[in-house]
Amino acid sequence: MPKLKLQSARQTSKALTAVTDQLYEELRQSSLKHWLDDEKAAKKLDEKVHTWAYQAKNSLDQQHPYQAVQLQLEAWLEKSALTEAEFTQMNEQYQEFQRSLGMPVFSDLWQLQQNEVQSKAALNLQFQLLQEKWQRKLTEAVAQWEFEQLALQRDAFLDDIKDFLATLQKMAKHKDSLGADTGIFLDYSKGELSAQDVAQFETWSSYLAQDKALQKLCRIMGSAVPSKYKRKILNISPMQAQQVMPDEHAFEEITGIHLSQDLNLALPSELALLADPDLQVLFDLKYLESNILGFHLQGEQAGRVIDDPRRARKKLGEKGPMILCLDTSGSMHGQPELIAKAISLYLAIQAMKSKRPMYIINFSTNLTALDLNQDYALDEVIHFLSQSFHGGTDIIPAMQHAVDMLQQPNFSHADVLVISDFIMGALPAELMEQIDQMQQQGAGFYAAAIGNFRIDHMNDALFDHQWVYQANTGKVEQLY
């Protein structure tokens, strides 16, 4: 059955252009109009509008309320000629369609014309005229319906755009205190943060903006490098492991099937093609293209692999990945947790800005983790930082997890930063030894104590640098 093209590409484009022009005009009349002059914001807005226009048009396809009428017309368009009875039926269906549109029906005129029909040629002419008129009216009706639906969707989309720009405006107010620019909020966010997410972001950012000493601490921590003091050299000898290595040139045993030109190893099913004269051409073609299925033979040889744990150390001053351990236990509840999360937000945005891989561990007696090495990381960071445990404090699982992450390719030689009040016990000797080995390989370990506490009870060799932020005075003290 032929399908009617009820809306031409030009008409569709015209309708969408009219709707989007109205949308931009309303934005120009709003208090958010200045974002249209921001290059990155305007580009992001254009992307959203184009995506919406495409989705809006697709959602309207095959959804108009005239499907039954369209099927009726398509059935008549299949016919090349009609009898008078069929023409009468077609005319009645067309008149019913007109009534559904609220249009006057000139049935007497059509009846008069029908009575005057004396020849088959005249009947066919009337048939063609009615086809064209019906199709034109149906096209106009569908076009009008689509325009009205697009206008309704535009209103909903306009509200979403205004919410997006309002959120961007709230976040952009804090770009200076976070050391960021508007592009960070656009490039690393879907723009779908909830009101609660935005409120949390503003709380952390506002606290950071009001405390110059905390801003200084954030900058110091973000640019910290491993200790300049010489560490003791671990007595680690290169490890030698006996391994069996595959040898492609030793044909010792069958390990599988592959494609090749080797006739000696060809499968019997391939050689069987030569028995049929009609299939010999196929065999020749497969041979020329090295597509003959054959056995794959391989041997093995013993080898010794030398692995030095001290290889590929990070250069002094080089910024690598970052692993952040954030304490959200009960003792951190209140202002200490607020300060810790403000620092975490700053460091996360700096990591995005410099495209520095970052891994955040939120710990108490349990832990959760977030890998920022992904798109839309800002949304995930805000959601993640909104979580708290408010239980006891156990840093051992968090530090063990950080050490495990240091052995992953994406986070080898990362800097590990712990933000806590350090109301906790010392680390076990085995974990300290692992940390010491990681430090010898170039990983940096840093600590920021929030509150009026020191971390003297922690092993002196654990951290390269230690800072204490005095919550009651707002002062920062660097221990070493």
Features:
48% helix, 15 helices, alpha/beta, seven-stranded mixed β-sheet, 480 residues
Can you characterise this structure?
By secondary structure, this protein is of the alpha/beta class. The chain has 15 helices and 10 strands. It has helices at residues 9-28, 39-60, 67-77, 84-100, 107-115, 120-172, 182-187, 195-210, 212-222, 268-271, 280-288, 335-353, 377-385, 395-406, 429-440; strands spanning 239-247, 253-260, 292-307, 322-327, 358-363, 367-371, 415-420, 444-450, 465-470, 475-478. Helix 2 (39-60) runs antiparallel to helix 6 (120-172), helix 4 packs parallel to helix 6 (120-172) and helix 12 (335-353) runs antiparallel to helix 13. The radius of gyration is 37 Å and the shape is flat. Mean pLDDT is 79; it is low at 227-241 and 305-317.
Provide a quick synopsis of the model:
With 480 residues, this protein is α/β, with parallel strands linked by helices. Helices cover 48% and strands 15% of the residues.
Poorly predicted ranges (pLDDT <50, ≥5 residues)? 227-241, 305-317
Distance between the termini: 82 Å
Q: Please identify the structural class as seen in this structure.
A: alpha/beta
Rounded to an integer in angstroms, the radius of gyration calculated over CA atoms is 37 Å
Number of strands: 10
Describe the secondary structure blueprint for this structure.
Elements: H1 9-28, H2 39-60, H3 67-77, H4 84-100, H5 107-115, H6 120-172, H7 182-187, H8 195-210, H9 212-222, E1 239-247, E2 253-260, H10 268-271, H11 280-288, E3 292-307, E4 322-327, H12 335-353, E5 358-363, E6 367-371, H13 377-385, H14 395-406, E7 415-420, H15 429-440, E8 444-450, E9 465-470, E10 475-478
Helix pairs in contact: 1-6, 2-6, 3-6, 4-6, 8-12, 9-12, 12-13, 14-15
